[in-house]
């Protein structure tokens, strides 16, 4: 098959052999307000290869829930069997056969359409697939879905229809045998909707089993489908070909008026469902018996339904952990470089504020008469590093979380590969911003020019920037973007109060003193004070006749700090960073569990 307009050869291979999907007695139960609610009620059915199937039903009938379960995205609270070509397979093998495109697919905004497909190919195709073959597959997907004109556009400027087709292409690169789509036409006009469903029809004709939830399709759109599966109240009301839909309903006493949209007619009947409505109930019972009888002829043996998609022993991902890590690191770095807001806040914001605070506190560092101002500078320094590095990732990470959840569920990569790639890709940008800010501020404010002291000061700043960035990642992972910008400042204030700047350690009530040991601001503030006035520094210059704080021992005594605690402060910050890294990893796991 080829596209004449651009003479591009489509290299997506046809499926060898058919893949028929049977699902038997699928039940899905959730806990809602201390009560168990059954969303799918022992529903069964068959989706055949080479045919495009529409899943219809009124709102709340269980259409999307059925697709989530059949795609393997939801496994908790599910019982029943999924049978592929008369065989029950484990979760790993099944996820390699299946592709699922949700209603709203979140994309990384700064990655182009072609790059998105290339990264998907790198993650979903085996390592032994040559690069040239991956390029051919990507070109074939772009041609098949008619995306040549926008191939080099970033995802954030794509139209709704182009994003829908790109979401299809992301799954198509691995040549799946079974494809699920949840309302692929939502938010699209009639022309774009027809194009998307036409592409899905082509995918089915190539030998795939293609299933799509569709919401109130037009008559023209409905004609593209081969089979119809009607869901009502978590049960099957009809399964069969489109041509047999109206005759089947007529036999049950429901007659469709001439020139009436068949989908609207079915939805009108389905919305009348009630346990007291005998005709609709009879239709559903008849349909369920017909489905069961058909399935018994197709399936040659009985299967135990106690375990749904059991774990297998084979490899879960097509490429190694290291290849996942390097690919994700390249993609994250590219997206960060192309994000002017993030880069501007992270680097140029540090530089601008470094000059600002440096000129405001000009030459206060080596003047004993200005020690209190210099101490204030140190705490302001830490506060800026915290907010500048935490808030920038808070504004971008929630969007990445949606991409992470989708890609992990689609077997792109492991949690640990994403976790380490995110840390490695973001670390240089954080470090460059903090370093630029520290050097500018350090020399403008007139701190002591000693190499070891500069390095000690930089060490505390780098550790604090690292801590703040991981802190922001945790907040962006666990909370939506509307909430996290308020959570971070509110949660930082207690640590700031016990830093030793606002109230000295020995002035605290005995009840509060242990809290200074768990305040990361205490270790940061004390570390900067030690780097500035400790480390064998005995005196500070004085521009007046008498300076009370000329002796550095007086400064440390006034702050209730012991000398030579720099490495203790480094250890305290390191422990906090290690702890937050563990919390971040567990947060990623928890985020996935919320979506199971």
TrEMBL record:
Q: How does it sit in the membrane?
A: Multi-pass membrane protein
Q: Return the protein name.
A: ABC transporter domain-containing protein
Q: Which CDD domains match?
A: ABCG_EPDR
Keyword check for Transmembrane helix, yes or no: yes
User: Which InterPro entries does the protein's record reference?
Assistant: AAA+_ATPase, ABC2_TM, ABC_transporter-like_ATP-bd, ABC_transporter-like_CS, ABCG_transporters, P-loop_NTPase
The family note in this entry says: Belongs to the ABC transporter superfamily. ABCG family. Eye pigment precursor importer (TC 3.A.1.204) subfamily.
Give TM segment ranges. 347-365, 377-402, 423-444, 456-479, 486-505, 566-588
List keywords of the entry alphabetically: ATP-binding, Membrane, Nucleotide-binding, Transmembrane, Transmembrane helix, Transport
- GO MF, one annotated term: ATP hydrolysis activity
Task: List the PROSITE patterns.
Answer: ABC_TRANSPORTER_1 (PS00211), ABC_TRANSPORTER_2 (PS50893)
**What organism is listed for this UniProt entry?**
Anopheles melas
Q: Where in the cell is it found?
A: Membrane
Q: Where is the ABC transporter domain?
A: 21-258
A GO CC term assigned to this protein in UniProt: plasma membrane
Classification via SMART domains? AAA
């Amino acid at each position: 098959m080829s596209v004449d307009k651009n003479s591009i050869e489509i290299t997506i291979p046809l499926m060898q052999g058919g893949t028929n999907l049977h699902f038997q007695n699928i039940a899905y139960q959730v806990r809602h307000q201390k009560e168990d609610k059954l969303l799918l009620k022992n529903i069964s059915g068959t989706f055949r290869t080479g045919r495009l199937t529409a899943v219809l039903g009124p709102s709340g009938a269980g259409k999307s829930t059925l697709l989530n379960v059949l795609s393997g995205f939801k496994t908790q609270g599910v019982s029943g069997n999924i049978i592929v070509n008369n065989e029950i397979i484990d979760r790993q093998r099944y996820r390699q056969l299946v592709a699922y495109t949700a209603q709203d697919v979140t994309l990384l905004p700064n990655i182009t359409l072609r790059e998105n497909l290339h990264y998907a190919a790198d993650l979903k195709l085996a390592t032994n697939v040559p690069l040239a073959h991956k390029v051919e597959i990507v070109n074939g997907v772009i041609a098949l879905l008619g995306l040549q004109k926008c191939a080099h556009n970033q995802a954030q400027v794509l139209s709704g229809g182009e994003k829908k087709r790109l979401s299809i292409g992301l799954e198509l690169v691995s040549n799946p045998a079974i494809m699920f789509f949840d309302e692929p036409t939502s938010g699209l006009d009639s022309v774009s909707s027809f194009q998307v469903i036409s592409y899905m029809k082509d995918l089915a004709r190539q030998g795939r089993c293609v299933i799509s939830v569709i919401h109130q399709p037009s008559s023209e759109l409905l004609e593209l489908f081969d089979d119809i599966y009607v869901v009502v109240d978590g049960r099957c009301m009809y399964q069969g070909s489109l041509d047999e839909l109206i005759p089947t309903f007529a036999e049950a006493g429901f007659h469709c008026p001439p020139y009436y949209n068949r989908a609207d007619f079915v939805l009108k009947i389905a919305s009348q469902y009630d346990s007291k409505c005998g005709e609709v109930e009879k239709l559903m019972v008849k349909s369920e018996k017909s489905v069961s009888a058909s399935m018994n002829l197709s399936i040659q043996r009985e299967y135990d339904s106690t375990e749904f998609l059991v774990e297998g022993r084979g490899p879960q991902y097509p490429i190694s952990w290291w290849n996942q890590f390097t690919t994700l690191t390249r993609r994250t770095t590219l997206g960060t470089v192309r994000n002017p807001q993030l880069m501007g806040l992270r680097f140029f914001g540090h530089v601008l504020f470094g000059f600002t605070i440096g000129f405001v506190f000009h030459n206060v560092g080596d003047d004993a008469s200005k020690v209190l101002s210099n101490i204030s500078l140190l705490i302001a320094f830490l506060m800026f590093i915290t907010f500048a590095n935490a808030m920038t990732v808070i504004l971008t990470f929630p969007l990445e979380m949606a991409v992470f959840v989708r890609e992990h569920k689609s077997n792109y990569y492991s949690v640990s590969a994403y976790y380490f790639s995110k840390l490695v890709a973001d670390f240089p940008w954080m470090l460059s911003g903090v370093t630029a800010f520290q050097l500018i501020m350090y020399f403008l404010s007139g701190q002591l020019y000693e190499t070891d002291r500069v390095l000690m000061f930089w060490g505390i700043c780098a550790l604090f920037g690292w801590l703040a960035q991981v802190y922001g990642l945790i907040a962006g992972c666990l909370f939506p973007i509307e909430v996290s910008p308020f959570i971070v400042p509110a949660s930082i204030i207690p640590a700031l109060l016990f830093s030793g700047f606002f109230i000295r350690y020995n002035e605290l009530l005995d009840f509060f003193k242990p809290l200074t040991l768990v305040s990361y601001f205490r270790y940061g503030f004390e570390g900067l004070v030690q780097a500035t006035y400790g480390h064998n520094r005995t005196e500070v210059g004085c521009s007046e006749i008498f300076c009370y704080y000329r002796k550095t021992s007086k400064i440390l005594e006034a702050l209730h700090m012991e000398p030579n605690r720099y490495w203790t402060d480094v250890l305290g910050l390191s422990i906090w960073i290690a702890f937050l890294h563990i919390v971040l990893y567990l947060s990623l796991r928890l985020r996935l569990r919320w979506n199971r």
